[in-house]
Amino acid sequence: MKKVKVRCYKCGSEFETNEGVRSDICPTCMSFIDISRALGADGQAAKAQPIAKDPPKEELHGVQEESAAPQEKAEETAPVKEAENGGLMHAEQLLEAGIWSAARSEFEESLSEGESWQAHWGIVRAATRELTDLSVFPSVKKHAEAAFAKMPAQERRVLGARYVPPLSEQRRRTAQAIKDMEKAPPPPRELQQKKQKSGLFYTGSAVFFIILFIADLLLEFSGGNVGLNVAGGIIILLDIVLLVLLIVFGVRRLLKGQRAKRAMQAVEDTQKEKHEAELKKLRERLDCIDTLCGYLKY
Questions:
Q1: Average pLDDT, stretch 218-227?
Q2: Which of 56, 116, 196, 213 has its CA 20 to 30 A from that of 289?
Q3: Statement: residue 175 has pLDDT above 90
Q4: Residue 218, CB half-sphere, CA atoms under 13 Å: how many?
Q5: Residue 131, H or E segment
Q6: 238 near 216, Cβ under 8 Å?
């Protein structure tokens, strides 16, 4: 049977084999060789360098150990990489389904198995619901920084094209909301205005009765008709009663007005605190949007 020369693609040594066989064993490294792979595309023997003398057994043993070590390392690493990619793929599926908590847990588990910018970025996306709820962004900002620190430029450009337009729209609406809140008018003071009008009414009434009381006194001591004196006394008595009632109701009204003022002040303080808190949230959200856009644009 005709012999052909082939070169082992594992150890590089050249040997002869029978023509037409599909596989053979390399006599140097004792590995199974696919003859069709070892031969050239035209079916002839692959180009080979001159055959050197068989190396000593010690050298041959060293070559076998060196060639086997990377192969063993690759075999050990492959399942780990496959498991990591599988975890990220499952987390991405959960994100697409809107199962945010489970997706974040998957990304965190993947991150615990090995550092990955995809896992860091996945945690940010899951926590913020694809960057639509930025109220929780400060709690995952460190993951965003870690992701962008290791993210390739090409990936950053792709993510920028996806997320920057909606983030820009969010920024426009947030900035407008801040502007509207900053120039919002103060709460109305209708209750205080009513109290002021009521105070003026009672003050004017008191002045009127005091003047009337003085007039009655003058009438009483003028020395005129007895009937007028009796009538004047009755008027004076009525004036005194009305004046006392006016004072009582005036004091009650004053106390009620003070209580209303304190209540109104408390309401105004509460409204002001809510207003400031809402304004603070909007400004924080604007800062988060600027941070993300800054990372994704550059």
A1: 59
A2: 116
A3: yes
A4: 6
A5: none
A6: no
Instruction: Give the lowest-confidence range in 58-72, 121-135, 148-162, 237-251.
Output: 58-72
Strand partners, 24: 33
Domain boundaries, the chain: 3-54, 76-183, 190-290
CB–CB of 135/281 below 8 Å?
yes
What are the pLDDT digits (tens) for 26-84? 777 666 677 877 775 334 443 433 334 444 544 444 444 444 444 444 433 333 344 44
Q: Which position has the higher pLDDT, 278 or 77?
A: 278
pLDDT above 90 coverage of the chain, percent: 27
Average pLDDT over all residues of the chain: 75
How far is Cα 95 from Cα 104, in angstroms, rounded to an integer? 8
Compute the Cα dihedral for 238, 239, 244, 247 and give only its sign.
Answer: positive
Beta partners for 23?
34
Sign for the pseudo-dihedral over CA of 287, 289, 290, 295 = positive
Q: Which residues contact 272 (CB under 8 A, 6 or more apart)?
A: none
Residues facing residue 4 across a β-bridge = 17
Q: How many CB atoms lie within 10 A of CB 295?
A: 19
3-state secondary structure labels for all residues of 38-61: HCCCCCCCCCCCCCCCCCCHHHHH
Strands (E), 80-156: none
In this structure, the chain runs to a length of 298
Q: In whole angstroms, what is the distance from residue 202 CA to residue 2 CA? A: 131
Question: In this predicted model, what pLDDT tens digit does every residue of 236-245 receive, in sequence order?
Answer: 677 777 778 7
Q: What φ, ψ does residue 78 adopt, rounded to 5°? A: -55, -50
- Element housing 206 (H / E): helix 190-220
